[in-house]
Structure to design on (286 residues):
């Protein structure tokens, strides 16, 4: 991620939130599957335990025919599963009613891909979800517990996509779309916004401005994994003397309203305290 165009495209496609993102790979593989120790581990700890199938071998539906991606290396699969257990599964199991929620809402399929998904137009897909039935992790081959950028990418992906399942089943919190209605952007415009632009509009990221659904999922994801969430998005700057400072604080007020609505919504529809989940996540982060 050294060049400017590559960085731009990484930002451009944190999509993966649309139900038509069926995964297809133009790779032929035999149907013979050897039952390895890894397969047995997956069967016991994920499929039997949570009804979650872990796909680490290529089959003919992981990405579209127009896309390219590297497969995961065998040696990174178990460490990635440990990462998923620690940062996605365990935090929900550790909070009141979290286990029942996780078991009821966890997607039936998790796909691991070695690298980013490259489109023919040069854009890059960081992670995907398919209508609550599947979550795809990319860039798995680069797993490194000491790489905070890699860690944040994976946490952002899974918390964002898992949050989508809540509004897909229960809609958005009442009047959520009315908190910052003027801040939502037209299709594709969000890529031209900076982080500060988004904050002034009342959003945690430029991508959050793309729709109320993405706003909901982005706010949940940032709240759970961002150590500095309160400082960056909740706490007003003191002694403002410029319009820019006032605009940032006005944006933070809207973010606070959204977070309150989201936390209340989670308690009401899934009976889980999202603040407790954040506490569990943050306790695991270095």
């Amino acid at each position: 991620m050294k060049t400017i165009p590559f960085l731009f495209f990484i930002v451009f496609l944190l999509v993966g939130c649309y139900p038509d993102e069926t995964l297809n790979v133009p790779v032929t593989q035999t149907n013979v599957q050897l039952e390895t120790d890894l397969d047995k581990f997956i069967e016991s700890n994920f499929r039997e335990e949570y009804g979650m199938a872990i796909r680490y071998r290529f089959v003919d539906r992981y990405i579209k025919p127009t896309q390219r991606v590297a497969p995961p290396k065998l040696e990174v699969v178990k460490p990635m599963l440990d990462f998923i257990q620690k940062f996605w599964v365990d935090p929900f199991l550790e909070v009141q009613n979290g286990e029942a929620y996780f078991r009821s809402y966890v997607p039936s399929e998790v796909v691991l891909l070695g690298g980013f998904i490259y489109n023919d137009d040069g854009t890059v897909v960081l992670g995907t979800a398919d209508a609550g039935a599947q979550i795809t992790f990319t860039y798995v081959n680069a797993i490194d517990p000491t790489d905070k950028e890699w860690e944040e990418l994976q946490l952002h992906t899974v918390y964002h996509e898992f949050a989508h399942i809540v509004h897909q089943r229960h809609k958005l919190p009442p009047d959520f779309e009315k908190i910052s209605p003027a801040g939502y952007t037209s299709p594709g415009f969000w890529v031209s916004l900076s982080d500060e632009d988004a904050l002034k509009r009342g959003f945690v990221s430029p991508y959050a401005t793309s729709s109320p659904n993405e706003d909901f999922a982005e706010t949940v994801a940032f709240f759970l994994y961002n150590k500095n969430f309160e400082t960056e998005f909740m706490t007003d700057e003191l002694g403002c003397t410029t319009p820019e400072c006032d605009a940032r604080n006005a944006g933070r007020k809207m973010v606070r309203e959204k977070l309150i609505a989201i936390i209340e919504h989670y308690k009401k529809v899934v009976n889980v305290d999202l603040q407790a989940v954040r506490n569990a996540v943050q306790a695991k982060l270095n």
